Queue: 4 jobs
Job 1
Amino acid sequence: MKTTKDIFSLHGKVIIITGGAGFLGLSYAEALGKMGAHVVVWDAKDEQGMRQAQQVLLKKKVKADVESVDITDEKSVRHAVRAIIKKYTKIDVLINNAAMNPAVGSADSASQFAPYEKYPIDLWEKELRVNLTGTMICTKSVATYMIKQRSGSIINIGSDVSVVAHDHRVYNDPSEKRFKSVAYSTTKSALLGFTRQWAARLGMYNVRINTFSPTGVQTPAQDKAFVKRYGDMTMFGRMATPQDYVGAIAFLSSDASEFMTGQNLVVDGGKTAW
Ligand SMILES: NC(=O)c1ccc[n+]([C@@H]2O[C@H](COP(=O)([O-])OP(=O)(O)OC[C@H]3O[C@@H](n4cnc5c(N)ncnc54)[C@H](O)[C@@H]3O)[C@@H](O)[C@H]2O)c1
């Protein structure tokens, strides 16, 4: 019989993280790699961005495969999945983490904070393509092998806005009018149905799929007033740190979550509980 320590072990597990060269993806890669997993990072950053991600992980003494994979390109995803099977013979965990999530106030974010009645439809479609269709492409490509293996865990990264709306007041000084992307919350909520639907398909093969829903993480780029307003929305009076999430990610990646599927694990400092 496995001990409790055994069921939390990630030793030798092959874990794909999409958007793994991003802010939270890198912290998951570091944490899971340090727990003994073979981490495979997929991202669509440019050459320099991919190289930087590799260097960050090397500095932290985490050996990971860092691959340039656009999750909206089904051919490229299938090719990358086959390469992992060839190298490791299995895939234990897929973390569907990639999404269009530009930081508030960044140049990229301007149009994603537009009033909804003026929201550009081509941007809406692009967000649906990355956040939902990309997740579908990765899930179907990996599920094929997990079904054969009769094991696996898929983790869809949602958000606190999978279960509540954004409170736009947090983004706005009185002089500004910013509204967090309508497509963002729409796609993050849709992931809950996507998760349940796939869970009902995969359960018979001993493959599980859950959503993990974190809240906003503090970064050095955010202004103080924003951090205070956001922090006040949680019961702990602060925004999250990347470290706040690695335990939940490790739990969902490990055998400790073996009997959990179709669910949404919310880690938001109580933001959606009051
Ligand atoms: N940071 C937060 O406060 C927060 C809060 C709640 C949920 N989330 C969720 O956590 C996840 C990670 O967020 P983050 O803050 O690290 O964002 P991030 O922008 O730093 O990382 C996202 C990564 O996805 C990659 N990506 C985008 N399109 C892609 C594509 N087509 N193919 C492959 N990769 C692609 C980007 O290059 C980027 O590296 C997202 O799903 C986000 O919605 C983040």
Note: The beta strands are 14-18, 38-43, 64-68, 93-96, 152-157, 207-214, 264-267.
Job 2
Amino acid sequence: MSKLKTQPCPECGGEMRYEKHADEVSYQGHTRKLKTLGWWCSKCGESILEGAALHATEKAFLELKAEIDGVLGPDEVAAARERLGLSQRRAGAILGGGPRAFQKYEAGSQAVSVPMSRLLTLLANDPKRLQELPGAPKAAKRG
Ligand SMILES: [Zn+2]
């Protein structure tokens, strides 16, 4: 199958090609460049993104936003949670946010709040303090 990857642009009727194209995300005057795979119009610059590409763009935006806002980014949230030895579901139950919260933070589809970010930072630096929270896995009883 060697199908030519073009289609007409819905905006201007120009030729759209399916390719990796220079793109950027911006937040509060800061921008970050990335390459995004999708349909790009060679005439007007319109793009049509789907699935994985759309998601990668959202994640890049959240990473930038996290940096500007001074909170943990998606991969840092995952690293902190793993340090605590918690599943995503368990982390949401113990630290707050609900069963799907950490899945969203780590996938880059939802920004972590400032308080959650700071709580994770403190706990990741001193994981044994997790035991002070209700619902946390208990360490073996000391005899
Ligand atoms: Zn166009």
Note: The mean pLDDT is 91.
Job 3
Amino acid sequence: MISILVVNAKGGCGKTTIATNLATAFANAGLRTALADCDRQRSCLGWLKRRPKDMPEIVALDWHKAQGKVPDGIERLVMDTGAGLRSSRVQEALKPADMIVIPVLPSVFDERATRTFLKKVDTLKPVRKGKKPVGIVGNRLRSRTRAEAELDEFLAKLGHEVAARLRDRAIYQDVARRGLGIFDLSPGRRAGAVEEWLPLIRLIESQDGSVGREI
Ligand SMILES: Nc1ncnc2c1ncn2[C@@H]1O[C@H](COP(=O)(O)OP(=O)(O)OP(=O)(O)O)[C@@H](O)[C@H]1O
Ligand SMILES: [Mg+2]
């Protein structure tokens, strides 16, 4: 199993959007997938309730109070966390994860809030030693803006770089409303959007050496 924690103390940066869409990527690739909701708002659980029954199954785990057991046979576990995670709780939150995905919006407010969080993550031993890779996702990027370059500069100063760049697309809100992710859509409808996820998915899949899997 590969477990992925989607986390950032900053609210509204796209944690739930990334967690739900990643889960649809794995489920559509035929992997037994669970989505654990560690957020009091329980957005992922609501999304799973809206998910049509004929879509590839994603197992719901309600972990908003405490982390529970992962059912047998799960191959990919995606964990969504809430905003406002305190520095003192970062280490504990990271424990069940093989890797960490941190979404960041290209805005000065988000960068500043993320800086403290990222510095804390970087102090943790498994991260320092490269045992738990960190994938930073630049989210809601718009073409032809300086904001994207500024996000790169901000991350470079912290010794990081963007692992994947997701554009600002109305499709994410459309699919979320219907309990879907973009990987559930037909190739024609998801054109363009899916390619942006591939660097992140490759990074995740490199964790168990199953290179070449069709996602
Ligand atoms: N790439 C994107 N393009 C367009 N809209 C997006 C994108 N990513 C996220 N959004 C929208 O931004 C809003 C916030 O996203 P989301 O709920 O995923 O953030 P969050 O980090 O989970 O928030 P919270 O901290 O409240 O849990 C939502 O309305 C979502 O649909
Ligand atoms: Mg959320």
Note: The longest helix spans residues 108-123.
Job 4
Amino acid sequence: MIDIHSHILYGVDDGSESLEMSLEMLRMSEASGVSDIIATPHVNRKGIVPDWADLQERVEALQSAANEARIEIAIHLGAEIELNGATMELLKKCTASHTYCLADSRYVLIELTDQTRPSIAENMLNTLLMRGYWPILAHVERFPQLLEDPDRLLAWIRNGVLCQCNAGSFTGEFGPKVQERARTLYRNGVVHMLGSDGHRTTFRTTDMREAREELARLARKEQRQDLWHSATGNADRILWDRVCYPEMPDHWQAQKRGLLSRLFD
Ligand SMILES: [Fe+2]
């Protein structure tokens, strides 16, 4: 398993607070079956842009500490970049240095906000694609405005935008509405990547064992490919900087609503 979204670097954002916490988070990842993890500190949130060279040094130091602690996991650097006008200044053109990209690839993890208007996001995403980036939308299930207009979301995917969901959303960690949206996205085959979005060791962790079981159960119920495996296959393409061509759904299956759907789950 490749965890493409995590806040395991300590002291850079609202994620890990210490080296010990980072190592404990990595142990949780390892126990979940994660072989590679991408550290994605917040970038451009409240205008704060961490220095890329400094983040690279932090990843190297954490990898050394993990090796010493005999934690078998490869740590890659990335970023979770909030999408706004400043992003377009930060990501002017995708160059060979792949600054603020995921694991030295052309993929960028893009975070929308509750205030994001889909029409404005669409323009920015198209611009990023034209500049040579391959955007992945972080935790799509947290944005009801995207599921209210699935045709628009499908058009984005057709243009080359990919979707990431948080593993914990499938277990209900972020509430029943987010869980239902994650299931709807999965049912429609538009969850391309998985991440823990782990911030700490006590809540919003990097432990994905429960999610792994839930995804296997869901796969049997929906008779679809297990997301745990398909997402790993897609994430592997990030590590190799290869393009991902997702399958498109024939038609959009609307979200199941209300108590009845949950009773007969
Ligand atoms: Fe995150």
Note: Residues 2-263 form a domain with the TIM Barrel fold (CATH 3.20.20.140).
